[in-house]
Design goal:
- This protein has 411 residues and is α/β, with parallel strands linked by helices.
- It folds into two domains: 172 residues, Rossmann fold, CATH 3.40.50; 206 residues, CoaB-like (Rossmann fold).
- 35% of the residues lie in helices and 23% in strands.
- It has an eight-stranded mixed sheet, with helices on both faces. Strands 2-1-3-4-5 form a five-stranded parallel sheet, with helices on both faces. The chain has a two-stranded antiparallel ribbon with strand order 6-7.
- Strand 9 and strand 10 form a beta hairpin.
- The structure holds cytidine-5'-triphosphate (CTP).
- Cytidine-5'-triphosphate (CTP) binds next to helix 12 and strand 16.
Length: 411
Amino acid sequence: MGSLVNKRILLGVTGGIAAYKSADLVRRLREAGAEVRVVMTDAATEFITELTLQAVSGYPVHRHLLDPEAEAGMSHIELARWADAILVAPATADFLARLVQGRGDDLLATLCLATSAPMAVAPAMNQQMWRHPATQQNVDSLRHRGVQIFGPGEGSQACGDVGPGRLLEPAELAQLTAGLFQTGVLDGVTVMVTAGPTWEAIDPVRGLTNKSSGKMGYAIATAAAEGGARVILISGPVSLTPPDRVETVPVVSAQDMFDAVHARIDQIDLYIGVAAVADYRPVSVAPHKLKKTADSMNLELVRNPDILASVAALPSAPFTVGFAAETNDLEMAARHKLEAKRIDLVCANLVGGDEGGFGADENRLLLVDREGTTELPLAAKSRLARDLIHHISRKFHAKNRTQDTRRAHRR
Ligand code: CTP
């Protein structure tokens, strides 16, 4: 099943009696590792207070579409982009109808229009309202649009009726929400991801390294696992928690990383080199801490092996994806890297500017291969990683299909 660790969930609460369960739902989502922001409709505030949901989520509740204060902080568009997934629970019959129509007359409906994140609704209403053909048609058209419908459950209702229309229990809703992140695009594929910087020792306490935080590589490893892949993450020294369901191998230097990669490369179908590997290392490592005796000193460096190029050059190389962090001429530099290292795809990003790149939580990427370029716009690294994994999986499967066809022709 998918995981909610580090996921940003936007919870929409609409006006039904089941709204009282939303506080427990927020708690369950947070316990599973998610960050939750709540958006309430006016009607929802008749059933549960803003203050309760603010207290359990840890953030102010968002209520109004045209709120100058909110627009100065997190505007409705930013909120729509922020979300990794939108869950509306409870979703009333009226809200489902408005969602089908694509209304933009309140904050929640507008967010649902403005997001490209996966969306789920958990209907809750009287059983007769649920069974009404209008509601059933609305649910069908949402389903066709890719909106997941969670429930409703059956049983006795607040109005005294018995039948379908109960909001699912918060624990089950949290579990289903985690499932939104499970895509299956890499089912049965073994993926290796390298991440973080490397540390090239000068002496026992000093070394050469860089500003890579490892966030992008870790997010890609997580997204690949959610895609159904078996994932091996070879990680340089970072201060991140190893992702769930990923085999993490910690390494220190570029040579360690090279060895760890090649020790396992026979098992790999897809290699994604995200690590910012040091190009050079000191020729020798001083066995003791160096003392400052002279006014100047020279550090002689020697080239490290290029891990990505070495993987791409293997006789039965996996599908290889490399990263390029550039300060200018992004596409040209990426194309050069694609050919120089003979890899399948380059993910290029601009560094050194105001946004994205090393250490930031957001990034944008230009994906360059022999067929053309694709841009992934600025987004949270977790979101970007999922879009990237989708792109890579399409390219990976397309290449395998072509190779299978060629093999079949040769036979
Ligand atoms: N890489 C690698 N082994 C190295 C160096 C880089 O596997 N010794 C991989 C990185 O993981 C990344 C890509 O190669 O996927 C980055 O390419 P690289 O040529 O190292 O980038 P720069 O060092 O920025 O290149 P340049 O020489 O253009 O400065």
